[in-house]
Write a structure and sequence with these properties.
Blueprint: H1 15-23, H2 36-39, E1 42-44, E2 53-54, E3 68-72, E4 75-79, E5 85-89, E6 100-104, E7 111-113, H3 115-128, E8 131-136, H4 146-160, H5 168-174, H6 176-191, H7 193-196, E9 203-208, H8 210-221, E10 229-232, E11 248-253, H9 265-272, E12 277-282, H10 301-311
Parallel strand pairs: 6-8, 6-9, 9-10, 10-11, 11-12
Antiparallel strand pairs: 1-3, 2-5, 3-4, 4-7, 5-8
Helix pairs in contact: 6-8
Length: 319
């Protein structure tokens, strides 16, 4: 069992990012093939997670609702997560490169898209030779009753644009549990690097939507120091970039209803800091496309990300 990090440092969230914490809580993957029944939130039993390892950051302070799961859009979602875990997906030793990546699902810090933005991504990366670890980070509490939960999500999303924008440091403080979970995940992997045949200097992180926000916050405000990062349909507004920022891969669809019509100054900021960055702006794909098979070119983000990792030497075994 590992100890939680001390309170994380404040990170340079913009007002646009602060708004996004609320706005992205209601996810709409915009699946062209989705049926109405598939769109409904259907409660399911908590699945067995025999390989999940508790991160040791403790139970979520003040939590009353217990963890529960539901299915929507063909993916399993977890909510009211009060104890953070990390689930390893290790590659075949014959393929293993020694590189590793933490996969952070999205869900507005209120749910986690465990299949589409978690397990399926990790399985795909492990098949390529990258050790992947899905982080089930602690979430903000939501109503235990499913109808009440759905109503709260709809009300929050519809009112997000009318709500005053929180101060940047207040939004950062709101992420304290999630930042502690992410930092603990990096420590755990480095502590078990020999066991998992991982190079401690080649551990990266990829996040989706809210998971992308967590990835950025982890990169810029903790001592985790990921070797590379992926920002998949997270907000791309301007931020203060350190001179040692890691290589970044970013992908978003132009028709993303949350972030597609906003500016992409983060890419310019990365370039201005003279740090490696690759950016894919897909014409179509909506929000939350993840590993869903779609007819849009956004489906190609995963292959592009793998090629990008290869370009940065992540498939070469450590000499």
């Amino acid at each position: 069992m590992m100890a939680a990090d001390p309170a994380p440092q404040r990170w340079p969230l913009t007002r646009r990012m602060a708004f996004s914490l609320a706005a992205c809580a209601f996810l709409v993957p915009s699946l062209g093939h989705a049926q109405a029944d598939n769109d409904r939130m259907t409660p399911i039993a908590i699945p067995a997670q025999p390989d999940a390892i508790e991160l040791g950051t403790g139970p979520l302070p003040g939590a009353a609702a217990k963890e529960s799961w539901h299915r929507q859009y063909g993916s399993r979602f977890a909510r009211n997560v009060t104890v953070a875990t990390l689930t390893p997906f290790l590659p075949d030793p014959a393929k293993a490169s020694g590189a590793a990546i933490i996969v952070a699902p999205g869900g507005g810090f209120r749910t986690l898209s465990m299949d589409n933005e978690g397990y399926d991504v990790a399985k795909g990366l492990a098949a390529k030779g990258i050790a992947a670890f899905v982080i089930k980070y602690r979430l903000r509490q939501t109503p235990a009753d499913m109808p009440a939960f759905e109503k709260s999500m709809q009300e929050m999303f519809s009112g997000a644009a009318r709500s005053p924008l929180p101060a940047a440091n207040a939004a950062a403080n709101d992420l304290a549990p999630q930042l502690a979970d992410a930092a603990a995940a990096f420590r755990l992997i480095r502590n078990r690097a020999a066991q998992w045949h991982v190079d401690p200097d080649r551990i990266g992180m990829i996040g989706f939507s809210a998971g992308a926000m967590l990835t950025m916050a982890t990169t810029l405000s903790t001592d985790a120091k990921p070797a590379f990062i992926g920002n998949i349909y997270g907000p791309l507004g301007n931020m203060t970039i350190p001179q040692d920022a890691p290589p970044m891969f970013a992908a978003i669809a132009a028709d993303d209803p949350l972030f597609g019509n906003r500016d992409f100054k983060l890419i310019d900021d990365w370039r201005a800091a003279k740090r490696p960055v690759e950016f894919h702006l897909y014409e179509q794909g909506g929000h939350g496309f993840g590993m869903y098979p779609k007819t849009t070119t956004s489906t190609g983000w995963f292959d592009a990300f793998v090629r990008w990792l290869d370009m940065h030497g992540m498939f070469k075994p450590k000499s």
